[in-house]
Specification:
Elements (H helix, E strand, L loop, with lengths): L8 E4 L6 E4 L11 E5 L20 E2 L1 E5 L12 E7 L11 E9 L2 E10 L5 E8 L3 E7 L14 E7 L6 E5 L4 E6 L8 E3 L7 H9 L28 H14 L8 E3 L5 E2 L11 E5 L21 E3 L3 E8 L4 E8 L7 E8 L5 E9 L3 H11 L6 H16 L15 E5 L5 E5 L4 H19 L4 E2 L2 E2 L5 E4 L8 E3 L3 E2 L3 H4 L3 H8 L1 H18 L19 H11 L7 H13 L13 H7 L11 H21 L3 H11 L6 E2 L12 E2 L40 H8 L2 H13 L13 H9 L14 H8 L2 H15 E2 L3 E2 L11
Parallel strand pairs: 15-17
Antiparallel strand pairs: 1-2, 3-5, 4-7, 5-6, 6-11, 7-8, 8-9, 9-10, 10-22, 11-21, 12-13, 13-19, 14-18, 16-17, 19-22, 20-21, 23-24, 25-29, 26-27, 27-28, 30-31, 32-33
């Protein structure tokens, strides 16, 4: 099975329709580390630094140890390994090489570096295979040519980390080792402050005397940086901003940092200003010129220079043979590594092959050595480790076995898309064997991708106990048991965990226990952990996953009552001001039955519908555990989707009416409404338009059919969604790649390239027309999952594959 996998699956990347390949990386299923080629460094800004691989790139900058679940979330704990011949180049692009003869397999990556060849076609080649916590590389050099006196034939292996101020490297030629750590991250790691020089307890006491929390918190859904409180303030009044900073900072002991965003100018003012000098005010111009509403700064005595990050990714690298020389280069720079440190080992020109073994740990340097000894002992060859990896992947993929047909039976699928440029589409399945072979390749390629996330960050100590570093603990301490990471529940809840429970129940159980450990360590279930809470996306879709685990009751040792307590907290406990945990706007939701368009929350329609789905899921768990009052209350809340459904709303002068609309606190719908406006007219919908959310009641399709006026009406509306023109308007969300992908790769208003519609094809059954849904399911399977298209959009954390 593993040999039919397309490891470099392509997916749409940006507004230009460019294809961004997902390198995925070498490693075992659900491994802590993946190892992927970094093929470009053309990223002058922070957001672009996540796009470090493309299958059409022709330069290799190194093999990247990566934990990146999605470019939108970016990486953590990453560093580069590479090999070279010749002089030591300290800057890019000189350190890069063109490459070819690449082999991407789930269990092995092979690459030839063109810049390091002799005149006979012998080139430096790297073969890599990964384990759960490490990797082994076999590096083969061209034969030494003693007559090529002008060619520096020094062999070199190097490892580079990205920040000379926070990361560290040590090298030892005699031992053949490179060791150290990186603190590379993009959020989701614990940080704390230590008092700045000159601060005194009296300063804090004076602040506390003036504590008075009166301002309204407003947090933007999707924000994924450090914890920030957002307030409505007069951006021309720094004294007022400082006062707000003082009030809220005193009110919450965890709050140490703040910012004020001004509409223009920007600049930093780290001198205390105004009548309330407890805060330093940092002004940042907003990109779109809108008036700022963000306040921030630092509580006196807690300056930025005292911030301590409790996160390290330790590595231990060993070579065979040992090195003849070792060294360290400081401030090696390119766009991706602004001030890197490079540690290298050199070998004599006569050395023809070097084996590199490396293992890592988030706990300690010693744990990295323990992992190395366990997974990559010196007496195990590269070929043996690669075969172990191949065996493990085959075990995972063999949970589904496909028998190909022996004849050419099978009907073609005819679909009339006359509304889309008059095209009549036929999915040819008359050649059954050929068709089945292609579907088999797609199946196992998707299974491979679906078996990478969520990753396990658990480690095994010297006594054989499973332990983990906690990104949820304020001090980053070590705890017993499993831990999971890199799963955006807004995406993954729809498919990843259902597939896992079905075909990988043992791993599914480990991940559920891992999320429960995260709950124990931070007091809330995480919503977008990478490695810890990132606070991105709307609602608390992790509730659906844990509720499902309770109802299934198939996780050995799971405390069902504790698991219920975790999801009930999201449903009933109003989130602390500025927190990334819990539901934003829950107090409003409880008051009105929905998030009001003129309230303090964002993405009101989308988040409301997600809250209701979560409430329905939790109600099932409550019923299973005999918590009848909770079950009844939550089921009633889950039915409030009717408050947002407007049976009369249309897309203009045509089409079946019936859409979910933003509603105000007074119970009336917003007067302006455009079914094609992405994001809505005022940020009421997440990553889609009202059209994509019109069937967003997966927990009550029969009820929705009734609200439409009958199943036949809803069937007509569903069919209309599949066949209408793929129109979009630039609403409050602006132009993103999702709109372009829908038009280019999908059909009608069915935006399969993004998650909000992934339940829609199953709604046909609830409406009473399952045959229509089956037709479109087959069409989507054949045309949106194949070797030509790859993925029609973002393959986030295995969701699209699952």
């Amino acid at each position: 099975h593993v040999d039919v996998v397309l490891r470099v699956h392509r997916s749409s990347r940006d507004q230009g329709g460019e294809k961004q390949g997902r390198a995925n990386g070498e490693g075992r299923p659900w491994a802590m580390n993946l190892w992927a080629p970094q093929t470009n460094n053309y990223a002058p800004n922070a957001a672009g630094k996540a796009w470090w691989f493309h299958p059409d790139d022709r330069e290799l900058y190194g093999i990247r140890c990566t934990h990146q679940p999605s470019p939108w979330i970016n990486d953590y704990g990453n560093f580069l390994i590479n090999s070279e011949i010749g002089p030591m180049w300290e800057q890019y692009p000189d350190k890069a090489s063109s490459f070819h003869s690449v082999s991407y397999r789930p269990y092995q990556y092979d690459v030839q570096l063109d810049a390091h060849c002799d005149g006979l076609g012998n080139c430096l080649t790297i073969n890599l295979t990964g384990t759960e916590h490490g990797a082994i590389l076999k590096i083969t050099f061209p034969p030494y040519d003693k007559d090529a006196t002008g060619w520096d034939q020094t062999r070199r292996v190097w490892l580079m980390v990205g920040d000379n101020s926070t990361d560290a490297i040590d090298v030892n030629a005699d031992a053949g080792t490179i060791t150290g750590w990186t603190q590379a991250n993009n959020g989701g790691v614990p940080k704390s402050h230590e008092p700045a020089p000159g601060a005194s307890a009296a300063d804090d006491d004076a602040d506390d005397d003036q504590c008075e929390s009166t301002m309204t918190v407003k947090k933007s859904v999707g924000y994924s940086g450090n914890d920030v409180y957002r307030f409505q303030v007069n951006d021309t009044d720094p004294d007022g901003a400082a006062k707000v900073c003082l009030q809220q900072c005193c009110a919450d002991e965890r709050c140490k940092a703040w910012t004020i965003d001004l509409p223009s100018g920007g600049g930093d003012r780290f001198n205390c200003s105004g009548a309330f000098p407890c805060c330093w005010i940092k002004s940042v111009a907003e990109d779109n010129g809108a008036r700022g509403s963000h306040v921030s700064g630092y509580k006196k005595g807690f300056g930025p220079q005292t911030l301590v990050t409790h996160f390290h990714h330790y590595f231990h690298l060993e070579t065979t043979p040992k090195a003849s020389k070792a060294g360290i280069k400081q401030k090696v720079s390119d766009h991706l590594f602004d001030s890197g440190i490079l540690g290298y080992l050199e070998f004599a020109p006569e050395v023809s092959e070097v084996t590199v073994r490396i293992a890592t740990s988030f706990i300690s340097p010693d744990m990295a050595k323990v992992a190395l000894a366990r997974e990559l002992p010196a007496n195990k060859s590269f070929e043996q480790v690669a075969m172990d990896s191949k065996k493990r992947w085959n075990e995972v993929l063999s949970t589904i076995d496909v028998t190909l047909p022996s004849d050419d039976s099978g009907d073609d699928l005819e679909i009339d898309l006359s509304a889309k440029e008059g095209v009549h589409v036929s999915t040819k399945r008359s050649q059954a064997s050929e068709y089945a072979e292609a579907r088999k390749k797609t199946l196992y390629s998707s299974m491979y991708r679906a078996s990478l996330f969520p990753r396990s960050l658990a480690e095994i100590d010297g006594d054989g106990h499973v332990v983990h570093y906690s990104a949820y603990d304020e001090q980053g301490r070590t705890f017993p048991g499993e831990i999971a990471a890199d799963s955006g529940f807004w995406d993954a809840y729809r498919t990843v965990y259902q597939l896992g429970a079905l075909i990988h129940p043992e791993q599914y159980a480990k991940m559920i226990q891992g999320w429960m450990n995260a709950y124990r360590e931070q007091g809330w279930l995480p919503g977008w952990p990478s490695p810890g809470e990132r606070g991105a996306m709307a609602a608390t879709m992790q509730d659906c996953v844990v509720a499902d685990a309770i109802v299934r009751d198939m996780v050995p040792g799971l405390d069902l009552n504790e698991a219920y307590k975790a999801i009930a907290k999201d449903a009933f406990t109003v989130q602390p001001p500025g927190a990334k945990k819990g539901r934003e706007g829950l107090d409003e939701y409880l008051k009105y039955g929905y998030l009001a368009a003129d309230g303090k929350a964002s993405d009101q329609v989308a988040a409301s519908l997600n809250f209701m789905l979560c409430d329905y899921s939790i109600s099932l768990a409550a019923a299973k555990l005999g918590r009848d009052d909770d079950a009844k209350a939550l089921a009633q809340r889950a039915a409030n989707w009717r408050k947002l459904f407007d049976r009369t709303a249309t897309g203009g002068s045509h089409g079946v009416p019936g859409f979910f609309r933003p509603k105000l606190m007074n119970g009336t719908f917003e007067s302006s409404f455009d079914v094609y406006a992405w994001g809505g007219l005022n940020h009421e919908y997440t990553e889609a338009a009202p059209y994509q959310y019109r069937f967003y009641v997966p927990h009550d399709p029969e009820g929705l059919a009734e609200a439409y006026g009958g199943g036949d009406v809803m069937c007509k509306a569903l069919e209309e969604m599949m066949t209408t023109a793929p129109t979009y308007h630039l609403g409050s969300w602006g132009l993103h790649h999702e709109q372009v992908e829908m038009v280019e790769f999908c059909f009608g208003q069915y935006e399969h390239n993004n998650q909000p519609v992934h339940h829609v094809l199953y709604m046909f059954k609830g409406a009473g027309c399952p045959a229509q849904g089956q037709k479109w399911l087959r069409y989507a399977q054949d045309n949106l999952y194949n070797e030509r298209v790859g993925y029609s959009g973002d393959e986030d954390n295995g969701e699209m594959s699952s």
